Amino acid sequence: MDRDEENYYGKHGEPRKFDPKFRGPIHNRHCTDIICCVIFIVVILGYIALGVVAWVHGDPRKVIYPTDSYGQFCGQRDTLNENKTILFYFNILKCASPVVLINLQCPTTQLCVSKCPDRFATYIDVQASYRYRPDQWNYFRQFCKPGFNNPRKSIAQVLRDEDCPSMIIPSRPFLKRCFPDFSTKNGVLTVANQTTFKDGRGKTRNVTDLREAANGINNVLDARSVGMKIFEDYAISWYWILIGLFIAMMLSLLFLVLLRFTAGVLFWIFIFGVIGIIGYGIWHCYWEYDHLKGIPGSDLTVYDIGFQTDFKVYLQLRQTWLAFMIILCGVEVIIILMLIFLRNRIRIAIALLKEGSRAIGYIMSTLFYPIVTFLLIAICISYWAVTAVFLATSGEPVYKVMANQTLCKYANLTCDPETFNTTNVTKLCPGAQCTFAFYGGESLYHKYIFIFQLANAFVFLWLVNFAIALGQCTLAGAFASYYWAYRKPADIPLWPLFSSFGRAIRYHTGSLAFGALILAIVQLIRVILEYLDHKLKGTQNSFTRFLLCCLKCCFWCLEKFLKFINRNAYIMIAIYGKNFCTSAKEAFFLLMRNVVRVAVLDKVTDFLLFLGKILVAGGVGVLAFFFFTQRIPVFGQEVPMLNYYWVPLLTVIIGSYLVAHGFFSVYAMCVDTLFLCFCEDLERNDGSTAKPYFMSASLHRILGKKKLSPKKA
Length: 713
Prior knowledge:
The protein is mainly α. The protein has 22 helices and 12 strands.
């Protein structure tokens, strides 16, 4: 009994139980995984409710506008800060870096101002000259606390109460914050062309003391200028970018059509090319090995010279080239043996690829279904992002004690700014302030903000995986309708894609949600592990880092395996209409009975589709390069004047790759579906008049099958 007879009759010779009237995707179905469907709908309703609650409590202005030490927005309408849109730091030297300034709280008073300082000045100098130069005081006091107008107050008391900054330095706004106006002069860091400044405490300091606060600011500001130029390039070249993406779409379609005729040629050219390249590598290694003969030191071993940072040293050893030659010979032999023993399965894989191209040609609407999946995922991402922002900005201002002294026991404790000055904190911790820290609260809602954010992320992952599952099941149903049509294309049902979509939504929402739920749980665990790994990067506990690394690797493998199982389970759901677990089990065992064919088909498909993506992206990229660099005389007058020609060029290349990926993902789903149908066809039918094969004539010829008669008991 050969393999296909065994598949048909089973391992012990008993015939497998199949529906003899089966002719493709079952239309008389019933709802599957109803409990999961109900849970999924309830979760969606809860997700909508969470978004509404977050919208009621949240305030995105807390992200858009900077907040001063009193918890007030800079630039908020109908407030005293309406015309004060920029945040000013009293003593920027207390801030470690721009990251601290933007994301965390700096232990110094923060004030909303209408503009940043444009000169050097200190409170001591202004105080000494305010009588005969009141204009200097009037300028300086706009950076003091609102209402403060007492230049006679001693510098010690002013700094203690932080009524005014001890100094101001020329600054410019960035991200609505005042940063020092750094520049370089002859390679020397300066502020307003000065290398020193008075700190307002009787000392003259070098501007390099501001280096920590200035790290990265100049680069970021330069990036802002670059960003404006990039925006200008997009504004004048967007229609040419769209033309490039349209060309990529047409090339992708052309490649899929040509695969029907060139799949085998492309594959064998690549295989023989690899064999030739490896053969050349073997010859080159032998030539190097023979050329080094007799050269002093070339007969040393790798063990003799030990580890060297300069790897060129190893290329001077005959042993190195001998090892390379042995490795390449082994690879060459393995490839040749695989081609000899797997040649028939490779022919089947290529025939299935050609059949996939033919199927898409009959059901062209499937090529545009990824747009539906893209829109669904875009909606999920938008809803998740908006909900996350509103959750993050929920709550009332929370104030904490910011102390200059590291040993202050009240540091980081919550406080009330209205009663802070009447407490003993300022006496025990001189210079301590009650400043705004973040938004929060003590209500039940605010206590569980973190849990809500986790729920938001989890449901987002669930919905995204459901959208992908819906697309896979829909496409599988359409392509299965093609395969199980005995006379192609006459027997293909009308509107197979829309019929398959309707069946998936009406009967199998629960099954698709079940598969998406399993995958979402694993992905959420991976996100948590990545978060823990990020938090523990500075730890010295090697065992903890090793354990996290192992867990991350295991869950990555588990996610890949689940995606593979889910994908094939959705195909079986589309064909037979069974629940998720049954479909996953049947798909898994069907694939295991054809594991070699699976491996060969997967690699052949991956190679051809990757080659197609590179050809499309590379071809359109080369065309775009010649166009935007004005190397095509015919379009010389049409090329827009750009700041950076690589902006539209990279956009076209990346966009072309994504367009090709969208089209080829449909093709990959088509090939996977046809393969499962092909395996089912072999097990269900024997090529007789009563049980004819549904496969194409080319596949039938490759198999070289004779008609089988049912085996007698």
